[in-house]
Each structure stands twice: as C-alpha cells, then as structure tokens.
Amino acid sequence: MGGGTLPLVLTGLGVLLLYRILTRLRSRGSVQGVVVVITGASSGLGKECAKVFHAAGARLVLCGRDAGRLQQVVQELTASTSAKEKQVFPPSTVVFDLAKTDTIGKAAEEILKCYGHVDVLINNAGISYRGNILDTHISVQREVMETNYFGPISLTQALLPSMVHRRSGHIVVISSVQGKIAIPYRSAYAASKHATQAFFDCLRAEMEQYGIPVTVISPGYIQTNLSVNAVTGDGSKYGVLDKTTAAGQKPKDVAHAVLEAVCQRSSDVLLAGPLPSLAVYLRTLWPALFFKLMSSRARKEQKVK
Ligand SMILES: NC(=O)c1ccc[n+]([C@@H]2O[C@H](COP(=O)([O-])OP(=O)(O)OC[C@H]3O[C@@H](n4cnc5c(N)ncnc54)[C@H](OP(=O)(O)O)[C@@H]3O)[C@@H](O)[C@H]2O)c1
Known about the structure:
This is Dehydrogenase/reductase SDR family member 7B. The protein has ten helices and nine strands. 52% of the residues lie in helices and 12% in strands. Bound molecules: NADP nicotinamide-adenine-dinucleotide phosphate.
C-alpha cells in the first residue's frame, strides 16, 4: 500500500463509523405514550416485551387466547415498581385465537377501539413443532402455518388500512433463525418462519412509500416454554424443555433488543450467536456444505431417537 493510501482508507473508515453512529442516534425514538399491540403476551418473549414496553411508557394492548393468563400479566405490570418512575398506562387486553383467521377482523376492530389507533404491532405469538416429515400429518403442517403465518399476516392486513390512512405505524414480526435456515425435524416451523420472512420483506418494500417501517426480528434459542408447547407429527404436545432452548438467550435481553429495534426502526435483525449466524451465511455462500451438515445432523438425531 502506497504512503498516501493507508491514511485515506483509515479516514474513510472513520467517516463511515461516524455516519453509522450519527444515523443510529438520530433514529433513536421513544415509545412513551405510543400504542403498542403485542400478540402472545401471556408468556415467554411476549410477556417480557410487555414488561419492557410498559416500563418504557407504552400504551399496551396485550393479546392471547387465555383471558385469565392475560389478566395475570396486567396485574404483574400494574404492580411492578420499576415502571413507577415514568408515566405508565394500564394495559388493555384482547382475547382471540390467531389460528382462527375468520375471527381476526373482529379482533382487529376490538384492538382499534382500545386507543383509536395502533402505532406498533408486534406479531410475536407462535408455536413450534418437532417431528419427521414421514410421520407428520398434513393437518399439523397446516396448524403451524395457521398460527405462525396466516394469523400474523391476517392481523397485519386488518390493521394496515388505518396505519396507511394515518401515514403512520410500524409492523414488527418475531420470526426465527429458522426463517433463514431450515434444520431437520422442524419442517412445519421452519416453513412457517420462511414464509413469514418473505411476506414481511414484500410488505417492507410496499409500505416504504407510506412511511410505515417493517421490522423482522430473527432470534436464536430463547429460554421460554416454546419447545414444551410445540406440537408433534400426530398433533400431540411435545412437552419437553429442549437443552438448546434451556441454554438459550434470556427473554428479557431479547425483549430489550426488540425495544431497540422498534426505536431504531430497524429492517432486519438477527439475534443469534456466532454459530447460527455463520450457518445463515453458509446457506447463501456455500449451500453444498450447509446441506451436508444438515444431512449429518439429521442422521445423528435419527440415531438418538
Ligand atoms: N423460544 C425460542 O427458542 C424462540 C426462538 C426464536 C423465535 N421464537 C419465537 O418467539 C415467539 C414467542 O415464542 P416464545 O418463545 O415466547 O414461546 P411461548 O412461551 O410458548 O409463547 C408463545 C405465545 O404465543 C401464544 N399463542 C400460541 N398459539 C396461539 C394462537 N393460536 N393464537 C394466539 N396466541 C397464540 C401463546 O399464548 P396462549 O397460549 O396464552 O394463547 C403464548 O403467549 C414465537 O413466534 C417463536 O416462534 C422463539
């Protein structure tokens, strides 16, 4: 490298870094008083998001299938001391089943009635699946798709017209690393999350002209009951807390990352350790090696079973 080139490169990198820091600072928003809808707020990541957004002063609409469990979350939030420093609002709740897509229009009306509009929709609810394709009934593939894909896209489509009308709003979806790579014995789940990624990527492009950002968040394993609540090939509950899930990220940390992504209006956020992140790049840059690794993983898991 010639004598004048190195300082030039370093100056260029410095300017780039400064630009990134400045754009981050400029786009840092706040959720104080903002109307935030969270699906799957009764447990796991959704419940942690409820805590974090409530403490940050958001006006919450919490959604789930079980009215009693949602009320319990509301009571916990109202009693929480950490929220007392800021102006906080008592959360509202709307009960509906995302897998029953014909009821979602009515649920969206109820959601809109809470505060008259929605600023941020966080599509968080979901179920997982464990099983091999040979033994999995097609109704199970559909069930996972209804909850993880058709439910969130129906709710999003039902709330979007009011956002477009106001030229304001923000759509967030909790996908998964498995929305970017498919691993064996997770077909229904990986397929539903790949579909989710594709739908919300299209939506992002279509909504830019209305000033409505779309954020896809793809976490790796999180310490929740997702694997316990997963369905198997015959539709029964898996009921096991997998080691990978138990050793995953803390839901509180992921919830803070969701808040940050909302404040920064990020487009696509991968929240995973070095290995899953490497696998995502491998799938694109060296697919043959990725497929070999997945086949070997499938054989190993088959042996264990
Ligand atoms: N845990 C992980 O390792 C992990 C990793 C990557 C991504 N994720 C994603 O994170 C999101 C949250 O999952 P979690 O880990 O917090 O699992 P979780 O503890 O099992 O929570 C799932 C939530 O979804 C709700 N839900 C399930 N089926 C529903 C339906 N048909 N209609 C309405 N709500 C429904 C549940 O509410 P009720 O049962 O009370 O109705 C529950 O609140 C999911 O989208 C999941 O795919 C999780």
